[in-house]
Amino acid sequence: MPGQEEQLCNELLKLIEPSRAEKGCIQYKFHKSLEEKGTFVFYETWADEKCHLHVNTEHYQTYRKNIETIIDTMDVYHLDNMKS
C-alpha cells in the first residue's frame, strides 16, 4: 500500500536468510522494481515441488501475518525453465 513500501521491504528482507537455509532451496533472490515503487519480486529456485511447502514454515507464516494489512496484491507464478 502507498506509504508502507519501506515496512513491506523490511518484512521481505527477513525472509531471505531462513528461506535460503531451507532444505531444497537452490536460489532465493530478492528484487525491487525500478519502475514501480513498492513492487518487489522474489525469484526462487527449489530442488523440487515438495520444497514449495516453504509457505508452511514459521518464518513465512510470520511474514504473511505481518504484511496482511500493508500489501495490496501478491502474485505467484510457477515457472518451467524452457532452456538452460
Please describe the structure with a list of short key phrases separated by commas or semicolons.
84 residues, alpha+beta, two-stranded antiparallel ribbon, globular
Residue fraction in strands: 15-25%
Question: Helix-strand pattern, N to C?
Answer: HEEH
Distance between the termini: 36 Å
Total beta-strand segments: 2
Give a short account of the largest sheet.
2 strands, antiparallel
Average pLDDT number: 91
Assign the structural class, choosing from mainly alpha, mainly beta, alpha/beta, alpha+beta, or little secondary structure: alpha+beta
In which range does the helix fraction lie? 25-40%
Uncertain regions: pLDDT < 50 for 5+ in a row? none
* Cα-based radius of gyration, to the nearest Å: 13 Å
Kindly report the spatial arrangement of strands forming the biggest sheet.
Answer: 1-2
Compute the number of helices: 2
Coarse morphology:
globular
Brief sketch in words of this structure:
The protein is an alpha+beta fold and 84 residues long. The chain has two helices and two strands, in the order H-E-E-H.
Structural account:
- With 84 residues, the chain is an alpha+beta fold.
- 31% of the residues lie in helices and 18% in strands.
- It is built from 2 helices and 2 strands.
- The protein has helices spanning 5-20, 58-67; strands at 25-32, 40-46.
- It has a two-stranded antiparallel sheet with strand order 1-2.
- A hairpin with a 7-residue loop joins β1 (25-32) and β2.
- The longest helix is centred in the N-terminal third of the chain and has 16 residues, at 5-20.
- It is globular and about 35 Å long.
- The termini are far apart.
- The mean pLDDT is 91.
